[in-house]
Amino acid sequence: MPDDVPLEQPKDEPQRVGWFTFHFDDERWAWSDAVQIMHGYEPGAVTPTTELVLSHKHPDDRPTVAATLHEMRRAHRPFSTRHRIVDTRGEVRDVVVVGDRMTDEQGEVIGTHGFYVDVTPVQTMTQEMVTAALTEITENRAVIEQVKGMLMLIYRVDDDAAFELLRWRSQESNVKLRALAEQLLTDYRQLDYQDTLPSRETFDHLLLTAHQRVRGDGDTVSG
User: How many angstroms separate the first and last alpha carbons of the chain?
Assistant: First the structure.
């Protein structure tokens, strides 16, 4: 690992959601405080680079992530990946990383921005999260609460992290939170499957593109 300042002690309440940006021209990265903590650094203690980003990938996953990064730069496509990172303490964490196109004022694609979700299994909370998620889905709750429950189940995150995911997408896409939640609920209900749930990549894609299916008047688009 690079000789940067590591995080001395694990946080009592791990932050499981954080954002990143990456500019193609000068390979300039930025991590939110939460993403720095995921990698084992104190907020503000490190300036991420492509070399640093790849150095934290688990050795078995690094070639795949490097190939994804290369394809992202070549084709300027949104991406979704689940892989492992190794923090400064040598602890392995499972993460979902979802990225969207980042454009300039002329609409030219200049990079990617998105979020990390730490989905590392936690023995003491996994069953509790599943139970809470199912409760959120089955009870007669508002649409935002229903979608939060679905996100908790899909990504194995807690209530706060699920809401942060939904709020981040709302802010980034400039779509009202409720309208975005309604579209996601419509999208999830329209998934065609029998005994086996769709892949995580299917849910990632729906989360990443839901705003494109919301009409200007706030109505959702079927199909």
Answer: 47
Q: How far apart are CA 196 and CA 131, in angstroms?
A: 19
* CA gap 78, 80 in Å, rounded: 7
Extract the tokens encoding 52: 């640093």
Largest CA distance in the chain: 52
Closest CA to 41 of 26, 25, 29: 29
Please state at what angle helix 159-173 crosses helix 200-209, rounded to 10 degrees: 40
Alpha-carbon distance 144 to 156, whole Å?
17
Rounded CA gap, 16 and 120, in Å? 9
16-48 pLDDT, tens digit each: 788 899 999 999 999 999 899 999 999 999 999
pTM to 2 decimal places: 0.65
